[in-house]
Amino acid sequence: MSTLLSQRFRGFYPVIIDVETAGFNAKTDALLQIAATLIDVDENGHFFVKQTLFHNVLPFEGANLEEAALKFTGITDPWHPLRLAIDEGDALKDLFKAVRKEMKANDCQRAILVGHNAAFDLGFLNAAIERVNLKRSPFHPFVSFDTTTMAALALGQTVLAKACVTAGLDFNNAEAHAADYDAERTAQLFCLIVNRWQQLGGWPLATPEPQTELPPEDSQ
Fold first, then answer.
1. Nearest 10 degrees: CA dihedral of 53, 107, 41, 184?
2. What mean pLDDT is predicted for residues 33-53?
3. Three-class SS state of 11
4. For the sheet containing 31-41, what is the strand order?
5. pTM for the whole thing?
6. Are 39 and 191 in contact (CB under 8 A)?
7. Helices (H) and strands (E) in the chain, counts
8. What is the CA radius of gyration of the chain?
9. pLDDT in tens, 197-217
10. What is the set of active-site residues?
11. Is 145:14 a contact under the CB 8 Å cutoff?
């Protein structure tokens, strides 16, 4: 049976993904953290954040680690035992299990990645899927929703922190650049923009009233 969520994005289930990495090259640089924020919708069609799943990830064998990237994320020792990091294959399997459960509950056929600068997160997600040889991914391999573009349109901002502040959402720069924190804030931003669009009358699309044909001026 179709649900409000499945109707909204033609059967796609949006999942907010954020990754922290050891560089910018998805093929060569390590995936160090991954978070997935799941969303839901109430009886009025308003989206809200439901749950965030998070894993610290061990660098794959032979992965490149850029020193500047490690300093930026604060993950100075990716193998430190207190990180409780797991192999990227185990991390993906755990996240995908939860995503599939939500897809089924909401009658959605495919998950779609939502991210701030989504191409970056999707690139690292796809590279990890290929490395661990997962045969089936719930995510669309190339379609994504980018909150950078959405925030630019709705709020005039492209930086996540500035967009959140402009939208009236709390943002702590000291906690930023951790995958779980950034995923949750991105999810809140996504829900706010989608809900605001609904409030403005953009969803569901209003059916235009039929135009009344006026008589020719010379007949009046």
1. 20
2. 96
3. coil
4. 47-56, 31-41, 12-21, 110-115, 139-146
5. 0.91
6. yes
7. 7, 5
8. 21
9. 999 988 886 555 555 555 554
10. 177
11. yes
